[in-house]
User: Which sequence fits this backbone?
């Protein structure tokens, strides 16, 4: 008779991580420590208006990477978009420059007034475009900073068991998993598309700001 062969598998279990070396230990220690009231300086008060330090809290690697890629994509795409549109405006302004061949063609047809209107519209359009770019970038940078603060506040609320900011409807686990996987891509795409959308929307203010730029050039 053949003896049945037995195979024994050895499981290599990693030693447990020392809890005192984690950021959770720092957070628990902070929560159990009685508050010490110290006199705040003007600098600390101003800094607290924008960002308050929370001992023991640590951003996840995925969130840090998402923020870094969002900022980098916002910079690269916005730079290419702005200088591309600026090149178009500069080319048209050069074509409709005073004392150029195109102006002489308008003089032949006795349409010098139309030429002046086009020239001023292109200059005011270029100025308006750059102003809207600066405003749009400022809004998106503020949004990224706001997102960092909200992420930290919501995470700390979860630590307390507070889920009041959750959507009111019940979502399936599959929906939550898909939403979690899509978060980074949606966040990066929103930063890129949101900036360009703001630039286009703000550029509609050219009829209002155009006369102001024309007067400032005089």
Assistant:
């Amino acid at each position: 008779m053949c003896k049945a062969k037995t195979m024994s598998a050895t499981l290599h279990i990693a030693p447990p991580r020392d809890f005192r070396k984690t950021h959770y230990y720092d957070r628990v220690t902070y929560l159990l420590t009685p508050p010490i009231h110290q006199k705040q300086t003007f600098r600390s008060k101003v800094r607290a208006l924008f960002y308050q330090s929370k001992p023991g809290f640590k951003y996840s690697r995925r969130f840090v990477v998402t923020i870094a890629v969002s900022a980098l994509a916002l910079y690269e795409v916005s730079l290419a978009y702005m200088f591309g549109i600026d090149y178009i405006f500069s080319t048209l302004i050069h074509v409709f420059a005073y004392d150029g061949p195109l102006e002489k063609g308008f003089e032949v047809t006795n349409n010098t007034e139309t030429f002046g209107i086009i020239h001023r519209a292109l200059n005011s359009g270029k100025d308006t475009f750059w102003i809207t770019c600066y405003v749009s970038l400022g809004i998106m940078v503020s949004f990224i900073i706001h997102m960092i603060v909200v992420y930290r506040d919501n995470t700390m609320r979860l630590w307390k068991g507070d889920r009041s900011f959750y959507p009111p409807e019940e979502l399936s686990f599959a929906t939550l998993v898909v939403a979690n996987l899509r978060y980074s891509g949606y966040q990066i795409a929103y930063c890129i598309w949101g900036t360009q959308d703001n630039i286009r929307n703000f550029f509609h203010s050219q009829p209002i700001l155009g006369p102001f730029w024309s007067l400032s050039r005089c």
